[in-house]
Amino acid sequence: MPCISSTFHTSHKFNNDETVSSPAFADSVSEGDIRWIKSVGDSINVDDIVCEIETDKTALPIPSPYKGFLKSILVEEGEKVKAHQPVFIISLERPDSQGVKIDEQATRIASDIPESNIKLSDESQDPLKNANHSNDQIISVPQLPESVSEGDIRWIKNVGDQVEVDETLCEIETDKTTVPVPSPNKGVLKEIKVEDGSKVHAKMPLCVIGSEGLGKSTTASDIKSTPKQSPTSTPLNMPDLPKVPRKVSIDIKPSFGETDRTNIPSGVIDKKPEFFPPFFNTSQKASQGKVSPIQKPTDDISPHTISGSRTETKVKMNRMRKRIAERLKQAQNTAAMLTTFNEVDMSQVMALRERHKKTFSELHSGLKPGIASFFVVASARALTKQPIVNAFVMEDNSHISYRDYVDISVAVATPKGLVVPVIRNCENMSVADVEKNVAYLSDKARKGNLAIEDMDGGTFTISNGGVFGSLFGTPIINLPQSAILGLHAITKKPVVINDKIEIRPMMYVALTYDHRLIDGREAVTFLKSIKNYIEDPASILLDI
After folding, report:
1. How far is CA 268 from CA 101, 262, 288, 290, in A?
2. Which residues contact 14 (CB under 8 A, 6 or more apart)?
3. Does this chain's domain 17-98 share its CATH topology with 319-542?
4. Cβ-Cβ contacts under 8 Å for 345 (sequence gap 6 or more)
5. Is residue 421 a contact partner of residue 410, using CB atoms and an 8 Å limit?
6. Suppose 458 and one of 46, 225, 297, 409 were both cysteines; which one would form an S-S bond, judging by CB atoms 3.0 to 4.6 Å apart?
């Protein structure tokens, strides 16, 4: 990724105004599209992000080098900007337009109130501003990994909430993982500077934590429990309006005969209802008192009648899910994917697990040997024999990169999407070593604690859909890898063994590979090697 200079150019000070220009771009970047975060008149502190310049490679935030107010925007939203182009003007003085405004209704109400009782101070209108600011702390976005430039924020706490030390305030969803932002102090969340769902960058201010709460006279519960006065409520000292007695009364008496209409005011009976069911004639008035037999509703339900709720809920796709969708579609558009299948007899592996599970658990802190661990070891051995499956086509499509190591990605389903942590150097691991790594990474994935380093790289992927009951499937390659192994559910099936029919636990396995690089012979030979290792686990020890 090209390096982008962060030096910003400003004009000489004139009438307390400062012009801020776009920084110098790298040689490979000539221009970008601007996206504004602040608006004209907004209060700005030093290093507050005013706008972003989105280039082909990354999004470049432009912070304010001064404290003041955004006086003018020189480039409209979405327009292209070049290096050293003036972007906005910062005023070091408060603009007149930011003064306190009083609407017409407030003016009319205040006209009868003594001038001494009117307070137009900003602090009197906002209890949060009366709090002691001496111990307030601004919380910023933590440092993100080099491969991640931005993320979407999701707030867990609200303004006024009490927070404890290390309690999570919000989460930043990146393309690969979710980064929690904890509170460094105990206090009250006084201000949120970035709206939920917005993009954030490293070191960008997020919120303000007040270590002394909201002050002695006002608490967060007081603010939440105090009802706001509606615009139509009675102003101060205004005379009560005279009450108007009700002149119309409707006396409806239950009867099995004619309804007594003497007390019903005129116009109520003759009023045409606004809605008629489909079996009524909408041209007929209710005052006629009779309904024709054709229009009489029946107890039969129309075959076109739809019962039940038909609502729809629109939910914003989180950043990780969007990135997964992009990667899957990229794999379909890039690789020439082909899938080959085989069937594996799991009798030997299952018998081995059953025979040694107690001893294995005692020696390895309660772990149990899993089916996936045997396939990781078998795949690592097979990859060393078929190095083309462990290779990949480079981005220029003119070179092939061979690896002398085996890093296997194990797909793990989490509530936020599919993640693929990597077990490194599997070619030197035993089943116990693999099981420890799988348990450790799976636990981190489900808790949302996976780091970028846990998912970087990988030369081959194993996806186990059998844990969810999948019987058969064709997995999609995880680029830039060249192959992926799909495991499925184990089912008992009749098979022919030595010319006899026996019931064996069988599993379908699928290998999807990039046909640009791997020929059918290599792919089938590779999958056949995995089958042989699983059906005869002793061959792994003998390396045959």
Report:
1. 48, 12, 13, 17
2. none
3. no
4. 495, 504, 505, 506, 534, 535
5. yes
6. 409
* Cβ atoms 323, 176 nearer than 8 A: yes
Are 466 and 472 in contact by the 8 Å Cβ rule? The answer is no
Amino acid in the structure at residue 216 = K
Q: Which amino acid is at 402?
A: Y
Which one-letter amino acid corresponds to residue 313? T
Give the separation between CA 166 and CA 70, rounded to whole angstroms. Answer: 35
Q: Catalytic residues, which ones?
A: 515, 519
Q: Residue 374 half-sphere exposure, CB side, CA atoms within 13 Å?
A: 24
- Bridge partners, residue 503, by sequence: 494
User: Could you please report the per-residue DSSP string of 93-162?
Assistant: S--GGGS----HHHHHHHTTS-GGG----HHHH-GGGGS--TTEEEEEPPPPPTT---EEEEE-S-TT-E
Fold of 17-98: OB fold (Dihydrolipoamide Acetyltransferase, E2P) (2.40.50)
Q: How far apart are CA 102 and CA 158, in angstroms?
A: 29
Task: Return the domain boundaries, the chain.
Answer: 17-98, 120-217, 319-542
DSSP bridge pairs for 51: 36, 62
Place of tokens 């509530």: 415
Please tell me which residue, 152 or 116, carries the higher pLDDT value.
Answer: 152
Token code pair at residue 2? 């090209």
For the domain spanning 120-217, the CATH number is 2.40.50.100
How confident is the model over 530-544, as pLDDT tens digits?
999 999 998 887 777
Q: Residue 246: what pLDDT?
A: 47
Predicted confidence at residue 102, as pLDDT, reads: 36
> In 3D, which of 393, 527, 370 has the Cα closest to residue 464?
370
For position 134, what pLDDT does the model report? 54
Mean pLDDT along residues 330-338: 94
Here the tokens at position 468 are 């969810």
| Listed residue (399, 402, 385, 421) closest to 525, CA to CA | 385
**Pairwise CA distance, residues 16 & 93, whole Å:** 7
374 vs 241, which has greater pLDDT?
Answer: 374
Q: What are phi and psi of 519, to 5 degrees?
A: -80, 165
Tokens for 61, please give them.
């935030």
| 491 C-beta neighbours (distance < 10 Å), count | 14
Largest CA distance in the chain: 107
The pairing of strands 483-497 and 460-464 is parallel
pLDDT at 419: 81
Measured on CA atoms in the order 193, 183, 455, 416, is the torsion positive or negative? negative
Q: For the chain, how far is it from start to end, CA to CA, in angstroms? A: 44
Give the list of residues 6+ apart from residue 145 with CB closer than 8 angstroms, or none.
451, 452, 453
| 188-229 per-position pLDDT tens digit | 998 999 988 888 888 889 999 886 544 433 443 443 444 444
Tell me which fold the domain 319-542 belongs to: Chloramphenicol Acetyltransferase (3.30.559)
Check residue 56 and give its pLDDT.
66
> Are 19 and 13 spatial neighbours (Cβ–Cβ below 8 Å)?
no
Helix (H, G, I), strand (E, B) or coil at 433: helix
Rounded to whole angstroms, how far apart are CA atoms 203 and 141?
A: 5
